[in-house]
Amino acid sequence: MKRGRAYEEAEKLGDRYPVRYSESDRRVIIERFDYPEGWSPRFAPLRYDLPDTYPRDIPTVYVSGDVSYEHRNPEHLLNRIHPSDDDDGEWAKWCIRDHRVGWDAKHDSLVKLTSMMRASLASPHTDNPFEEA
């Protein structure tokens, strides 16, 4: 993982959101992400676990285990898949790996991923919510 790049991207995210970055855990947490209309609560954490191969490969995305969309869980919200350090269901995986996201290490970043997540979360019941991004 290119740690310098991840740090710089987390810093850029910090211009808009309160962010916690852990280089040792390879993790970025947006403390108060503004979920799109329909999500409850509207403000909750969003987590990126960076692979060792970042930026070549896209991070794994987790949403707060407390959120729901229109009082239901969309199929892309995988409540039973948590990070290995999550013993109490604080996080739920947001399925993006099967959607041919087209991650390009040269041009994509955590800032762009955050924009893509916002678009994806705005249309959570579509077959491929990342098409909206």
Question: Can you walk through the features of this model?
Answer:
The protein has a single domain, classed as Ubiquitin Conjugating Enzyme. It has a six-stranded antiparallel β-sheet with strand order 1-2-4-5-8-7, with helices on one face. Helices cover 18% and strands 26% of the residues. The longest helix is centred in the last third of the chain and has 13 residues, at 110-122. With 133 residues, the chain is an alpha+beta fold. The two termini are 25 Å apart. The chain contains two helices and eight strands.
Blueprint (SSEs and pairs):
Layout: H1 3-13, E1 19-22, E2 27-34, E3 39-40, E4 43-49, E5 60-64, E6 68-69, E7 77-78, E8 91-94, H2 110-122
Antiparallel strand pairs: 1-2, 2-4, 3-6, 4-5, 5-8, 7-8
Produce a short descriptive summary:
18% of the residues lie in helices and 26% in strands. It is α+β, with helices and mostly antiparallel strands.
List low-pLDDT spans: none
CATH fold-level name:
Ubiquitin Conjugating Enzyme
Number of strands: 8
Report the C-alpha radius of gyration, rounded: 14 Å
How many separate domains? 1
User: How many strands, which pairing sense, and closed or not: the largest β-sheet?
Assistant: 6 strands, antiparallel
Which of globular, elongated, flat, extended, rod-shaped describes the shape? globular
Summarize model confidence as the mean pLDDT.
Answer: 87
- How many helices? The count is 2
Calculate the terminal CA-CA distance, rounded to whole Å: 25 Å
* Strand line-up in the sheet with most strands: 1-2-4-5-8-7
Give me the CATH superfamily.
Ubiquitin Conjugating Enzyme
Mind telling me which CATH architecture this is? Roll
Percent strand equals: 25-35%
Structural class: alpha+beta
- CATH classification, class level: Alpha Beta
Percent of residues in helical segments?
10-25%
Q: What is the H-and-E element order?
A: HEEEEEEEEH
